Amino acid sequence: MARKTTVIALSVMLAVILLLISGGLTFADPVQDKKDELESIKSEVQRIDAQLESVTEQYNLTNLRAEQTRAYIAQKEQELAALNAELEQRKDILGQRMRELYKAGNADFLEVITECKTVDDLYTNVDRIQRISGGDVDIIASVLASRGEVEAVRAELEAQKAGLEATLGELASQKNSIEGNLQRRQAVMAGVEAEVNQLIAEQAANQPVTNPRYSTPLPTVPTPDPPPYASAVVQVAYAQLGKPYQYAGSGPNVFDCSGLVMYCYAQVGVRLPHSSYMQARCGVPVSYSELAQGDLVFFHGYGHVGMYIGGGQYIHAPHTGDVVRIADLGRRRDFCGAVRINY
């Protein structure tokens, strides 16, 4: 009986050992659980950061288009005012002639002019009017046609402006929502930030950084030499280190990513738009291997921009709650392209 009991006990122990070897039983690993928790928080904050940057740059681009549309509207309104003034002058001339013809008893002329409310009306009665008043009908018709055309353009532009304003409101609402969520997530992360940084440092020491996106083919356009002001614009960027990120900020005390680039280049006499998407169109594409000081580097679909300063580093305004800082380009997994400004 004792021998049988021993055999059973040994069988149970063997089964337990086999289960452990095969992974059938697992033990809680507090360290790994903490790592998983921290990585989850870190990934969530990074996702919100990227979303916020993208919405911010879309806002900047839409705002730029809105400014252009407003300027176009103002120009057309000036043209309309000039045409209205010209029309009033022609009306005065026509009124004077009407008074003269009225005194002369020419009722037919007055009847035709009263009936003509549109350009089509004038041309319908053109033979009749020309017999009475000479070539004035062409002058009146041209003025009416110009006024109608400009008023149509103005109506179209006003509709575009209304659409842009609606888009701005929508983007601002999205941004507010994202910022609120980001602040909540950052509050969660604040309590474990030191642990996150330590884990990142450990991972960086054990895992070399690679990025297959850096094997981007060379651009088809010959890459120009860095501009003579490249060093100067980088020095301007250095002077902004530590200044806080602020949505739509363009300096001199707060910045978003494209606002920082725009400000730095403005100090050396180069005008760039306040939009990372538009800034990507303002230069000549350069490959990662050809990057030089002053080049603009772009991330996650051109929704974020920074300035390359050499040595594999770049300066950028990261996101809400952060400041203008130097970062390692090699750590980015979302690098999508670079351009060289050479005005």
User: Helical stretch count?
Assistant: 10
- Please write the string of helix (H) and strand (E) elements: HHHHHHHHHHEEEEEE
* Main β sheet profile: 6 strands, antiparallel
> Average pLDDT value?
75
Write down the CATH class of the largest domain.
Mainly Alpha
Find the structural class using helix and strand composition: alpha+beta
> Which percent band covers the strand fraction?
5-15%
CATH architecture of the largest domain: Orthogonal Bundle
State the strand order across the main sheet: 1-6-2-3-4-5
Q: How helical, in percent, are the residues?
A: 55-70%
Principal-axis shape: elongated
Number of domains: 2
Q: How many beta-strand segments? A: 6
Give unreliable regions as ranges.
207-219
Structure description:
With 343 residues, the chain is an alpha+beta fold. The chain folds into two domains: 32-187, Helix Hairpins; 216-340, endopeptidase fold (from Nostoc punctiforme), CATH 3.90.1720.10. Helices cover 62% and strands 8% of the residues. The protein has ten helices and six strands. A six-stranded antiparallel sheet has the order 1-6-2-3-4-5. Strand 4 (313-316) and strand 5 form a beta hairpin. It is elongated and about 105 Å long.
Write the layout of secondary structure elements.
Elements lengths: L1 H21 L7 H74 L3 H9 L3 H6 L1 H8 L2 H55 L2 H14 L23 H10 L17 H10 L9 H4 L4 E2 L10 E4 L4 E7 L2 E4 L8 E4 L6 E6 L3
Antiparallel strand pairs: 1-6, 2-3, 2-6, 3-4, 4-5
Helix pairs in contact: 2-6, 3-5, 8-9
